[in-house]
Amino acid sequence: MLKYNQRNKFINMSSTTLNRIVEFYINEKKYFAREGTSVALALYNNNYKKIRKSPKLKTDRGLFCMMGSCQECIVNIDGVKKLSCISKIKKNTKIFI
To answer: What residues of the chain score a pLDDT lower than 70?
Structure first.
């Protein structure tokens, strides 16, 4: 697939990493997504809508702003707490909710 870039030149979209399907894990269960997809989108596409509990009221929390400012989407990614909306899926990414 060809697409224009900002300088009006064609780029080959088939060579980008978004076309490679990789495996990743949510709570040790295997799933598949395109490499480079945000972790939040991969969670949502695999029916994980409630991804944490609020610290004070213990109510369910999910995706909200999708740009990193609200911090509602914090999950454990490869052993580190990160914002899922700005983190990218890579091969064998391990996510714990």
So the answer is: 1-18
